[in-house]
Amino acid sequence: MELSRAMSISSTPTPREGLEPNYKEHSHTWAAEGGLHRVLCMQGGDDDGSYAKNSEAPASAITLCKPLLLTAIQSLKLFKEEGIKDSIRIADLGCATGYNTLATIDMVVESLRRRYIQECGFEPEFEAFFSDLPSNDFNSLFRSLPAAATLSSDGNAKPRRYYAAGVPGSFYDRLFPKRKLHVAVSLSALHWLSKIPDAVLDKRSPAWNKGRAWIDGAKREVVEAYAKQSEEDLDNFLRCRKEEIVQGGMLFMVMGGRPGSEQQLENQLGDPDSRAKHPFATSMDEAWQDLLNQGLINEETRDGFNIPAYMRSMEEVERAIKRCGGFELQLMEYQRIMEHSEEKHKEWIRDPVSYGRAKANLVRATLRPIVEAHLGPYLSQDLFNCFEKRVSSDTTLLHKTCFYGVIVACAIRN
Length: 414
Prior knowledge:
The chain is globular and about 70 Å long. The chain starts with a helix and ends with a strand. Helix 11 (342-350) crosses helix 12 (352-375). The protein has one domain (3-413): Vaccinia Virus protein VP39 (Rossmann fold, 3-Layer(aba) Sandwich). Helix content is 41%, strand content 16%. The model is unreliable at 1-34, 41-45 and 49-55 (pLDDT under 50). It is an alpha/beta fold. The protein contains 13 helices and eight strands. Strands 1, 2, 3, 4, 5, 6, 7 and 8 form an eight-stranded mixed sheet that branches. Residues 1-22 are annotated as: Disordered. InterPro entries: MeTrfase_7, MeTrfase_capping, SAM-dependent_MTases_sf. One of its GO terms (biological process) is methylation. This is Gibberellic acid methyltransferase. It comes from Fagus sylvatica.
């Protein structure tokens, strides 16, 4: 089944149609203009439902991998032969918006800058490329950039020490000329796929994912379809970076993942507590069922929505790097991150309503653009409200701990 058909909304009238007469054409429009990559993005802006205000887990992942990234930079060969006539070029692939991406680039630039000053006696110029899908909120990202790194009369540099540029496009395609990049990082983005597998949305297929928004605990045929798409996507990602990264350059990746082998594809989250609390799993399915029970959508509409995310195993990542060739794998680790701090946990036990609101904002931050493409803004708000009520009313969730698994990998272009 074509993605444009699968992601369209139901033709069954709903109470919202009088308020939003054009919403039935909404999903058809974005599909015709290029598919999922036209709407898949983190929620922009800076309100309570924005990604900038709800990226604690990615921030924790970055904090966790910061020592590994700094160690990799310290061991990276400096590009001395280029002298000061060329810039050092860094790309953040899947940058989204907010503090995380700026902090990462600042860390990479500052670490390299100090090495060049100490070991080579000069400070090269740096270029930073912020890349994400065209639907990303680049305006908010660039508004948050600090001032350019010019010298004041006393010789002190202002905060930003690099020239910045935006590069819209899918990182599953080529984004830069050959041998352009010295350092490429992708943090908390590669678990998002380029598309939803056609078989998952086809009623005639054994992989039809009926009644679910995601794949944790789904039928093996469903997860295998996602795994196949994941393999194709990661192959494309690595092939493109192989062309774009200079010899001796570094590719550093952090992605949602799992430690298990290929025999555990359906166990995407690792443990029952994580499955119960994860925003893509149980409560999300229940919220979709609530819309169905209220007569706001039909089964076709519910079954046509799937979250395009897949948690790879370490084996899958390592095999893809070997299959691509051109890279020497320097590091690979699996780590688990708690969904929030101990302080937040104690606060939310005292106030379950606040917890439900926070989880709903997290879902809005990550899924609102694709939910709106599927349902339109009115019904999507109903969905998030149902999700919030579900989470707020289930106090057992507050006594469970959700972990996000991440894979950290570093490879050098040889």
